[in-house]
Design a protein that fits this description.
455 residues; alpha+beta; Beta-Lactamase; 4 domains; six-stranded antiparallel sheet; five-stranded antiparallel sheet; disordered N terminus
Length: 455
């Protein structure tokens, strides 16, 4: 990399609303070029791009220190991103060279051996690098995924022993190999491998990884019995031991730092802690989904049959999501306090279903939008309707979104692709169902039905 004077005046640039670097001083343009970008295209330095997106999304000035790759070494930058209505103005100072994060030579060789393409993540499993041939070989835009959680690009699967090598490696900061995955933009099968890297202080700083394409197996003979893939109870126990405790501590400590409960802290550090807590919750949600998946796919899975008030459960679910809705400026119109709809089902499972349905409606609603939650009787069924003003779901996608690890647009913020699959399986285990009524551009209506209970 070029030697840069830390006392050099601020370097300026501008990113438009679509994330394109539309103007840049010479030093920023050169750094962006070395990262593979060009002026007029999405900014190629993921750390700067992430801060610019955050400033634009929040509508406030964001100022943070970052470490960005620059050739064979790294550079410390202080990035100031200020939205102005048409994009984001960048002012960058610092520019201090530092040694690159170290990956042991033998591990680097292990990762790159026979790789089809390469990827890297930070400690919160956000993608920080995708090699140029990743998009060329698979027909997707790598820039759309930089700064996003790794699970937006990869759908993780279990290995032959019912485990998830990546999740265990994350908990122990170890190398892993043979992690089955699906490339979400294409549906292609992959095998992931990675080794951890550390910063100069020896702290875990993420993974350096490789993706290996997996050729589909030849179809089985017509008379062969179909195989079933399910998570094992042993995997569930391993998952709890390996991840729940560490993730819980990460989230609690990051929340404490973000809230500055131990005393004042620089705001950019508090913001980092909030990002870490958010990433931890994303991973914890994935763990919860995988454990639920293991439970509902067992042949002996049953749900309790107990009397409940579906309108009351809906009010409780909406209350749990009120903070999230307020942050998005979305209003939830829930059943009134005097409204009742007797039904049968397992209370905690029905609450889980409605939190998923209402949460999805809030996530995909526009700012200042409305989510309607209605309870009504339909013959022998009690129906709970969740309707939103989002962009809707095309008819061709409506069956697919109820399948495992499926989402309409994997590039959008969202969960693991398991929520609706689990919700429908739970509803049917309680002798009910979930239906969808939607069309592109017309919002979506999800209808949960359960057996009606005569008072």
């Amino acid at each position: 990399m070029n030697a840069i004077d830390p006392g050099f005046p601020p370097v300026h640039g501008r990113v438009d609303a679509a994330g394109r670097l539309v103007s840049a001083d010479e030093r920023l343009a050169e750094l962006n070029s070395r990262a593979g970008g060009v002026t007029g295209q999405p900014i190629a330095v993921p750390q700067i791009a992430t801060i610019a997106r955050l400033a634009q999304r929040l509508g406030i000035l964001v100022s943070r220190g970052v470490v960005a790759a620059d050739g064979e070494a790294d550079v410390e930058l202080w990035v100031r991103a200020e939205p102005d209505g048409e994009g984001v103005r960048l002012s960058i100072t610092g520019w201090r060279p530092r040694a690159a994060w170290d990956v042991p030579r033998e591990d680097a060789a292990f990762v790159r051996a026979a790789a089809d393409w390469l990827w890297e993540s930070d400690a919160a499993l956000r993608l920080t690098f995708l090699s140029a041939d990743a998009g060329a070989k698979n027909g997707f835009d790598p820039g759309r995924y930089l700064g996003q959680p790794l699970t937006r690009l990869f759908g993780l699967g279990e290995d032959g022993e019912g485990g998830f090598p990546m999740l265990g490696a994350l908990a122990l900061h170890q190398r892993f190999d043979n992690q089955p995955a699906i490339l979400r933009p294409t549906g292609g099968a992959l095998r992931l491998a990675a080794t951890p890297r550390t910063d100069p202080g020896g702290v875990f700083a993420g993974f350096v990884g490789a993706a290996h394409a997996v050729q589909p197996e030849a179809p089985a003979a017509p008379d062969a019995a179909p195989s079933s893939v399910s998570l094992t109870p042993q995997f569930s126990a391993q998952l709890d031991r390996a991840l729940r405790g560490p993730l819980g501590r990460i989230i609690a400590n990051a929340d404490s730092i973000s809230a500055q409960s131990e005393g004042p802290l620089r705001q950019d550090y508090a913001d980092y802690a909030a990002d870490i807590a958010s990433a931890g919750r994303h991973l914890m949600g994935l763990v919860d989904d995988l454990v639920d998946l293991q439970a509902i796919e067992r042949d002996d899975f049953t749900a309790a049959v107990e009397p409940l008030d579906l309108a009351d459960v809906a009010r409780r679910a909406a209350g749990l999501l009120q903070v999230r809705a307020t942050e998005k400026a979305v209003r939830i119109d829930r059943p009134s306090l005097g409204e009742s709809l007797p039904a049968t089902g397992e209370f905690r499972r029905v609450l889980q279903i409605l939190v998923n349905l209402i949460g999805n409606a809030v996530r995909y609603s526009p700012a200042d939008g409305m989510v309607w939650v209605r309870a009504e009787r339909d013959g022998e069924r009690a129906a709970l309707i969740v309707a939103d003003q989002g962009k809707g779901i095309a008819e061709a996608d409506q069956a697919r979104i109820f399948e495992k690890f499926e989402r309409v647009d994997p590039t959008e913020p969202g969960g693991s692709g398991l929520g609706l699959y689990i919700a429908r399986r739970l509803a049917r285990a309680m002798h009910g169902d979930i239906a969808l009524d939607s069309a592109s551009g017309q919002g979506a209506r999800f209808i949960l039905t359960l057996p009606y209970r005569e008072d």
